[in-house]
Amino acid sequence: LSLSDWTIEINVRGHRNSSQVYHVHKSILAVGPKRSNYFATTFLKAQLHQPHLEQPRQQTMQQQQQQQMQPQDDIIGGIEPCDFVQESFSIAPGRITDQQEAVSVAPGRLVDHTDHNQNKSKIELEELAAQAFPVLLDYMYNSTNQLNITTDNATGLHYLSGHLEMKTLRRKVKEFWTGDLTMENLVTYYAHARVFKDVKIVTFAEDYCAQHIFQIPEETVVDILTNVDAHFFLKVVTKCGELHTAKTAAASATSVPDADDDQGPLRLSLLIAVYGNIHKNELTPVMFQKLTNERHLPLLEVKAAKVLLELEDDICGTAAVMTPLKTRAIAIISKSWEESCFEDPMMAEDGDDSEPELALPRLEGNALFEFVGSVLKEAKSTTTSLSQELDLMHKWKEECETSSNLDDFVQKELRETKQKLESVKVATAQVVAQIKKDVEQKMEILKKEKQEMAKHHQEELAKVRNDCAKQILDAKEDQAKDTVELRNQSVSYKTSTLKLSAELSEVRRQLAISKDKLKLQRVAEEGSNSVLKPVWSNTSDDPTVSEEEKKTSDE
Question: DSSP secondary structure string, 56-109?
């Protein structure tokens, strides 16, 4: 005889005919340190909906007030819901599992169809929460506070403890999953947290993954990268960059150099390349650019640089554009051109000593010219260095010729050095030949374009010259006409001037003759005495001359 006074029917959301019935006791679910305020409120509402009960309504309200006056240690959360249901349930969209696609109702508050007349609660839950519900009941009925919590039901119990308003259970569950979450079970916690949109577990998983992503086997890393969505991985990458920046700043402050200072970004670039290959068809151009941002990815590993170049062209469609990622990747690849441009012959399956095969990165346009220039510069530097090493070996051989025991050793070392130099020269020649071929093709295209531009320039220049020559001829003709007109005017002016000069000379001559006549007339009239008289320059001033003579003289 169970003497149960309440029934709980759990239905799995999205699955028909999958209900489970539990016969429970109100005194267990609504009283004590492990009580559920959710069920306490439900039972109180059921009691208020039954008017045939002998207990007066006033007494019920008094009990409720006494209950609210209890110490805070006994009241777990009050009637208000836990902080869990007040949190934001916004998780960035990503890859949705088959289990999530079957969910038609977004996880939020419990879907409760309580029948107060029959003392029955019909609750609709996610499958993971429904599986964890019996564990929750066992915990409430167990007098030893034993909780059978595992990795598989921890997220479901975290969800139930929040919605059923059980703070004590919620604290115990949180203490468990914060200590139980590892890189091996991170995918499980992540998948379950996405079902319930549990932001706390997802955020904790992001921080934990960022701290331990480089400390686990490769198989575990691939499993994580395969199952997490792009937003989760972007946050992990960003936090890895922040951790590396903080570590570098701490090392700089203590003046203690870190030998692995550059290993973090290099390993992170490999992770991004692997993730991009796995989710190439799902990544958007914006998300890819965020993942490869220089702020949290300042350095690139050589293999990762080649993969990221191809991924950027495939995802973002920037084959003909020189992007910041291309600039950084080309700089890294060109420094290690022997490793990045040639396949290692030792990795061949047959194990023979065949020549390394040329494996250039997929580049076009300006990116190809930038890569060619960088590789040639690095190859020239490498060849010069090897030549210097060979010269040093020759000098060392000369110094050791007196010792017969070291002669064979020196000869062997010289042969090995020569072989290395020859292999480098062959590899360099292949790269130079390939580059030369590509450059010649580009030069042919540029040459044709240059010829067309030169032809067009010559035509334009000839047209301008003809226009200029025509304008110059017209200007010369106008200048010649103006010159002739000026000359004619000058001749006419000179002629007029000469004519006026002749007339003026004639007037002066006539005036002189008149004066001479007057003098002769005066002498003839006055005789010799006129010689003693003054000679007046003007007849009008002579007092001896009559008015008529003055008038005649003036005329």
Answer: -HHHHHHHHHHHHTS-TTT-SS-SSPPGGGGS-------PPPHHHHT--S-S-S
Q: Note whether 149 and 189 are within 8 A (CB).
A: no
Pick from 200, 208, 144, 195: nearest CA to 170? 200
CA distance 418 to 421: 5
Residue 319 has pLDDT above 60, yes or no: yes
324 pLDDT exceeds 90?
A: no
Q: What percent of the chain has pLDDT over 70?
A: 68
Instruction: Tell me the two tokens of residue 423.
Output: 């292999």
Q: In which band, very low, low, confident or very high, does the pLDDT at 216 lie, cut at 50, 70 and 90?
A: confident
> What mean pLDDT do residues 160-177 have?
93
* Parallel/antiparallel/unpaired status of strands 6-12 and 20-24: antiparallel
What 3-state DSSP class applies to 254? helix
Q: In what order do the strands lie in the sheet with 111-115?
A: 20-24, 6-12, 120-125, 111-115
The distance from CA 531 to its chain's CA centroid, rounded to whole angstroms, is 125
The larger pLDDT score, comparing residue 437 to residue 109, is at 437
Look at residue 173 in the predicted model and tell me its pLDDT. 95
Q: Judge contact between 87 and 200, C-beta under 8 A.
A: yes
Unique residue bearing structure tokens 């969209």:
93
Q: Under a CB-based contact definition with an 8 Å cutoff, are residues 288 and 324 in contact?
A: no
Go through the chain and tell me how many residues it has: 555
Q: What number of CA atoms fall less than 13 Å from residue 144's CA on the CB side?
A: 3
Are 24 and 65 a contacting pair, CB within 8 Å? no
d(CA 534, CA 530): 8
What does each C-alpha distance from 208 to 55, 230, 361, 527 come to in angstroms?
A: 55, 17, 35, 154
Does residue 508 contact residue 519 with C-beta atoms inside 8 Å? no
Average pLDDT value for residue range 243-269: 72
Candidates 138, 137, 131; CA nearest to 155 is 131
> Which carries the bigger pLDDT value, residue 352 or residue 459?
459
pLDDT score, position 236: 92
d(CA 210, CA 231): 14
The tally of CA atoms less than 13 A away on the side-chain side of residue 502 is 6
Are 345 and 353 within 8 A, CB to CB?
yes
Q: Which two tokens stand for residue 41?
A: 């409120």
The string over 404-429, giving b where at least 16 C-beta atoms fall within 10 Å of a residue's C-beta and e elsewhere, is: eeeeeebeeeeeebeeeeeebeebbe
- Contacts with 273 (C-beta within 8 Å, 6 or more apart), sequence order: 301, 303, 304, 307, 308, 311
Global confidence as pTM? 0.57
Residue 358 DSSP SS3: strand
Residue type present at position 317? G
Q: Is 430 exposed, middle or buried (0-12, 13-18, 19+ CB in 10 A)?
A: middle
Helix (H) or strand (E) holding 479: helix 407-526
Q: What is the DSSP letter of 294?
A: T
Let me know: does 86 contact 176? Beta carbons within 8 Å. Answer: no
